[in-house]
Amino acid sequence: MRRRPFCLCFVALWALMASRHTEPAKASWRLHTNSRWIVDEHGHRVKLACVNWASHLEPMVAEGLDKRPISWISKQIASMGFNCVRLTWPLFMVTNDSLGLMSVAQSFRNLGLVDYIGGIRRNNPSLLDVSVLAAFRAVVTSLGDNNVMVILDNHVSKPGWCCSNLDGNGFFGDQYFDHNLWIKGLAGMATMFRHVGNVVGMSLRNELRGPKENLRDWFRYMERGAEAVHSANPHVLVIVSGLYYDTDLWFLGHIPMRVSFTRKLVFELHWYASSSGMVWEEGNANERCKDATDKVMSKAGFILNQGMPLFVSEFGGELSGQNAKDNRYFNCFFGVAAKLDFDWALWTIVGSYYLRRGIAGMDETFGVLNKDFSGPRNASFLQRISALQAPFQGAAPSKPPDRILFHPLTGHCVQRKREQEQLQLGACNESEAWTHTRHHTVRMRGTDLCIQADQPEKPVKLGANCTDRGSKWKTVSASKMHFSSDIVGTNVTVCLDIDFSTKTVVASSCKCLREDATCDPASQWFVLVNTTHLALTRW
Ligand SMILES: *[C@@H]1O[C@H](CO)[C@@H](O)[C@H](O)[C@H]1NC(C)=O
Ligand SMILES: *[C@@H]1O[C@H](CO)[C@@H](O)[C@H](O)[C@H]1NC(C)=O
Ligand SMILES: *[C@@H]1O[C@H](CO)[C@@H](O)[C@H](O)[C@H]1NC(C)=O
Ligand SMILES: *[C@@H]1O[C@H](CO)[C@@H](O)[C@H](O)[C@H]1NC(C)=O
Ligand SMILES: *[C@@H]1O[C@H](CO)[C@@H](O)[C@H](O)[C@H]1NC(C)=O
Ligand SMILES: *[C@@H]1O[C@H](CO)[C@@H](O)[C@H](O)[C@H]1NC(C)=O
Fold it and tell me: 395 with 41: CB under 8 angstroms?
């Protein structure tokens, strides 16, 4: 009898220690869809905030493993706030054993890339002599160890940089794109990762394209591919791309895709500055943004309104801030991405490629990591994208959404300065909720205060006289992101803007509302975004 309490204590202590040593509770990784949202087992929204990691080029090895240990890269991805990786793979790695079972060292040797072997030996010694498939699995495992979900993306058939119309990988019937082999490979990959919990989705094929594209084959083979993946692994989301380099799903507005399973289908879209022939540098930035957004909505965005999830599985641009076209595109993209709150995957975590189109060590100017994978290429971009990583809306909101005033250029939102009447930019999850009323006032929720411009080129104020003309804000440019009002008691028109030295919201003369092609309006762009995730109002 005397020993029992001791025993129990010991058991309890052991149990406590054991529980302390088990991993922190992992996010639930069984995902499905609920209308346009991706949700977990409990029905809570999971927003895919992914980054692409390329593993489909000639070596068939995830990029950067000569420069950093896998675990280091996985930890970077997680610490940068991405909850998921879209990991690309070439079909032949799975369907051709002489490729898939080749050792990593041999793969580099065959390509004459012996210089990388030393780096892999230093950074990832356990991978050098295993097969490229085993190295691929090790990448997936390492991401899982760091709580990062994975979407397996069949990027090409023949290993190599993607894409062009005539590269033989574009559409069913092309030189390297046999539909039976493709289905076999998809089923093989789905089976291989059947019991790997962090693999949450498989995208069937990247960027269908080329002269053979046609809808009959699209439906026939995409439906078969979807069934093959689902029957091999019923836990994964099945992600389906449209036509014309993954920019076009118009036909789903007329003909639904028919599959035997429910609540697993997700559609994907790619949106770059170059998508759909958009010429960002010509014409007024407001008009370009409107045109690009209209195009995206009519080709793919409409499916959100039809209750299907849209995963923008590739977007990105040069992160140097030096490419005017990409800067314009990003400003527009951030506004739309916040407003629609879709799931996404940025291109790319990769800082440079082993070999891209014949060039060894090629710098990736879109890469989140720098050329030598030693750190972020542009820390301010990471700060900006963090605004899009958290969901704005839940899948089953219990109350009507709040609206926050989002500033796409910075990824920040408008909030009240502590104890003051002025407004500033700050974290979106800590910002004020606003209502834009029928009378065009922008009122702070829970108060009688509204945004008021009482002097030009000065901070706007929270004022109580919401009937004055200085409190009537209308959207005035094609982008609908310029909020314009008169100054109190005058006919002087101003727009909401930011004074960057103090991050204060000011009223300044409206910039480039139309015509002017060279001028950049982005500091004056604001978007009202629905959110159900706002912290309790602080005031
Ligand atoms: C498999 O890949 C090897 C190396 O590229 C190639 O020589 C061979 O023809 C391929 N086999 C098949 C069945 O495609
Ligand atoms: C990061 O991006 C910003 C905004 O585009 C740009 O102004 C800045 O120069 C970039 N920094 C680096 C280190 O490239
Ligand atoms: C807002 O988000 C940041 C970073 O994601 C977090 O540290 C902070 O606690 C959040 N604030 C609230 C009020 O939830
Ligand atoms: C509010 O503004 C209107 C229009 O400028 C003005 O007529 C009215 O006197 C103002 N009310 C107060 C309480 O300041
Ligand atoms: C503003 O414009 C209106 C209509 O053009 C005019 O009647 C009014 O006198 C103007 N007010 C001021 C303060 O200039
Ligand atoms: C925002 O919420 C309002 C009110 O629920 C709704 O009418 C509107 O369509 C939503 N906008 C978007 C872009 O989701």
Answer: no
> How many Å lie between the centroid of ligand 1 and the Cα of residue 92?
8
Low-confidence ranges of the chain (pLDDT < 50): 1-25, 537-539
Hey, what amino acid is at 309?
A: P
**Token couple for 450:** 């509204």
Residues 115 and 241 in one domain: yes
Q: At what angle do helices 179-192 and 215-232 cross, to 10 degrees?
A: 30
Q: How far is the CA of 528 from the centre of ligand 6 (A)?
A: 10
Q: Is the CB of 427 under 6 A from ligand 3?
A: yes
Backbone φ, ψ for residue 378 (5° rounding): -150, 100
Q: Atom 2 of ligand 4 has which residue's CA nearest to it?
A: 468
> For residue 1, what pLDDT is reported?
31
246 φψ region: left (φ > 0), alpha (ψ -120 to 50), beta (else): left
Looking at all shown ligands, the one closest to residue 469's CA atom is 4
* Same domain, yes or no: 137 and 231: yes
242 shares its domain with 358: yes
Q: Is 493 in the pocket of ligand 5 (CB under 6 A)?
A: no
pLDDT tens readout for residues 416-429: 998 889 999 999 98
The number of folded domains in the chain is: 2
Q: Is 362 exposed, middle or buried (0-12, 13-18, 19+ CB in 10 A)?
A: middle
Q: What pLDDT does residue 214 have? A: 98
Q: From CA 404, how far away is CA 433, in angstroms rounded?
A: 5
Q: Which of 368, 389, 410 is the last residue of a domain?
A: 389
pLDDT of 182-236, one tens digit each? Answer: 999 999 999 999 999 999 999 999 999 999 999 999 999 999 999 999 999 999 9
User: Which structural domain, as residue segments, surrounds residue 521?
Assistant: 402-531
Rounded to the nearest angstrom, the gap between the alpha carbon of residue 498 and the centroid of all alpha carbons in its chain is 26
Q: Is residue 381 part of a domain?
A: yes
Residue 287 counted as domain residue = no
Three-state secondary structure of 56-117? CCCCCCCCCCCCCCHHHHHHHHHHCCCCEEEEEEEHHHHHCHHHHCCEHHHHHHHCCCCHHH
Looking at the structure, tell me whether residues 421 and 351 fall in a common domain: no
514 part of a folded domain: yes
379 and 512 assigned to the same domain? no
Last residue of a domain, one of 389, 411, 427: 389
The verdict on 355 and 500 lying in the same domain is no
Q: Are residues 131 and 161 in the same domain?
A: yes
**CATH number of the domain enclosing 120:** 3.20.20.80
Instruction: Return the number of other C-beta atoms located less than 10 Å from residue 346's C-beta.
Output: 26
Which CATH number goes with the domain that contains 511? 2.80.10.50
Whether residue 59 is contained in a domain is answered as yes
Q: Is residue 379 domain-shared with residue 486, that is, in the same domain?
A: no
* Pocket flag, ligand 2, residue 330 (CB < 6 Å): no
The token pair at 431 is 């910002």
What spacing in Å lies between the alpha carbon of 454 and ligand 4's midpoint? 12
What confidence tens digit (pLDDT) does each residue in 357-413 have?
Answer: 999 999 999 999 999 999 999 999 999 999 999 999 999 877 888 999 999 999 999
Closest residue (by CA) to atom 1 of ligand 6?
Answer: 530
- Decide whether any atom of ligand 6 lies within 6 Å of the 456 Cβ: no
pLDDT of residue 19: 39
